[in-house]
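$ fold --in a.seq
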Amino acid sequence: METILVQLGDYHGAFVDARGRSGGLALLWDKNLELIVVSYSSHHIDATLKWHNQDPLWWFTGAGGPLRAQAHIDAFRDAFLDNDLHDLGFSGYEFTWCNKRVGAEVVEERLDRFCASTERSIQFPEARVQHIDSYISDHLPILLRCKPRNWEAT
């Protein structure tokens, strides 16, 4: 991942190494943002993002790992509803994960997504999510491009 980071240029990165051919997480962000990794494990990265030294604007959670109990999935869904979160949509390929099998055994799902509250969507009206083609991993990288309303480059 460090090689990819160097190729991209103006980005910082946080990585959780894969175990053999499974797992592994990467989070890349523009050097103009202040990102603080709050916690991480082989299944998640939690971070806060600040835009030009303002109060934390975003909380990022990237997660993976084994199947979860339905009660955990329901609690996660309820947290979305309770905090006015909605999916930001995307452009690109419909699915973000594939089991890398062929024919009738292939399974594809949209597991990875960016979400925001209505307040943040108003503050960042130009936020766009893109699924990026990749043949390296079973997950597609997803990219969030955004800048706040009335933003001027420094």
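$ fold --in b.seq
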Amino acid sequence: MTAVEAPSALAEVERRISELLDAADAHTVHEAAQRACVGGKLLRPRLLIAAAGEDAPRDLVVRASAAIELIHAALLVHDDVIDHDDERRGEPTVASWAARGARSTGSSAGRAARIGLATAIVSGDVLLVRGVAELARLDLDDEPRRRVLTIVERAMVRAAEGEHDDVVLAGGSPHEEQIELLLERKTAEYSFRAPLELGAVIAGRPAEAVAALADVGLRMGVLYQLRDDVLGIFGDEAVTGKSALSDIRAGAPTLLATLASRDPAWQRVGGDYGDPAADAGAGSRIRHLMRASGALDEVERRIASGADALRTSIARLPVEQALRDELAGLLERCVERAR
């Protein structure tokens, strides 16, 4: 499965996702789960497909890719609940969509909100269990099956830790070491390292290649999240599909905020960072300071230097050139993207 064949493989992944979510009982929970899987970039399947290479059994690769995308969708649904977000990918979040539906049928505002939260939580659970079950059903020998499930277990535990720390550290003054660990747990482990490891294990690649791909995935995921954090403050809402005030109101613990908070002028605007009622004026003041303090430039510098180092590591990977080329291309998309 070369990079040229990836688009057709992704189409198969989307069909498999539809099959896994096509429940006979047209329950609202299943409809919500289906909505959560619409509009994604399919980044994790792309990584898994690339790491598997052209000789891996296509059915296994497609099914594993669909599974990891369902798990990703589950985490997004739960993340939106935790962050009280109303919009995802330019559309209402599952909780918001379900709450609006309840209001349209006569529920009070309070009851509608409760229904929205319940729908989001349980539909996320459905996505999660179906993703894990699909991985468990893969026709693999005992050892690779054990490795696949161990990889997913580790990634999910790390993601849970990262989600927890993201809330605990919000609005505070975390150290750079804490931010680095958060970047790895929150995003890099499950979104980059795990898909590359899964593809490599399914393909039967040697341990050296699996470990090298895992390292590349972790580092690429950190760069991806650094770019995401920049877009969360400076991105175009029409492109990102996310409010440019969301991270500001949440006091998101990012490297950008940590660096900006070292400037004495932060004392004048820091109170707006983490204020749920922060308005456009507050957002403008915070963005101005992040630029004036040099925080934005420093984050951009670290993204650029990290990408340079990673390009060298990718070029030295003990894998075929097609995979190195695919990873190099994905790296560029990660650090230069607008959404």
